[in-house]
Every structure is written in C-alpha cells, then in structure tokens.
Request: fold
Amino acid sequence: MKLRRLTRAGRRRADVDEAVAAYSAWRRECAAVRAAYGKWARAAKSEACSAFVAYRVALDREEQAAVIYARLLPRARRRPELDVARQLAQIAAPFGAM
Reply:
C-alpha cells in the first residue's frame, strides 16, 4: 500500500515537472519567434527571403511546443496539487494572442 502511494506521488510530481518543462519550452520558442520576426522586419531586401524562412521555422517550433504544452496541461489540471500549472496557464493566456 505504501509503495502505491509513493508511485502516485511520483506520478503527480512527474506530471507537474512535465507541465512546467513544456511551459518553459513554449515560452523559449515564443521568444525565438519574436527575435526571428525582428530580424525579418529589419532585414535588407537581399536577406528578406532567408529571414522570412527563419521566421516560419521559428513559428513552426513554437506551434509544436504549444501543442505539447496543451496536451500535458489537462492531465496536470487533474492533479489537485497542480496549482502551479493552473497559474502558468493564467500567466500564459495574455501571451497566446502574440
């Protein structure tokens, strides 16, 4: 019985860790999108095409990170001790409209 509790507690911690890691990865990718957009916006005509490609790649990476975070968050929300994940979701909400 005690082993089962430890396993549940371990799974809960793992869920929290995964959600927080996914959130952090998503925010890093958001920053990369902003940086790539800035480079594209400032690029000389001769470099605009490659800068746009880099921006699109950054957008794709950000989207993939968002998908992963979105997939993990519902599982994390089912954990009563995951107020951290709920808070991260609320913090992230204003950034979703970037």
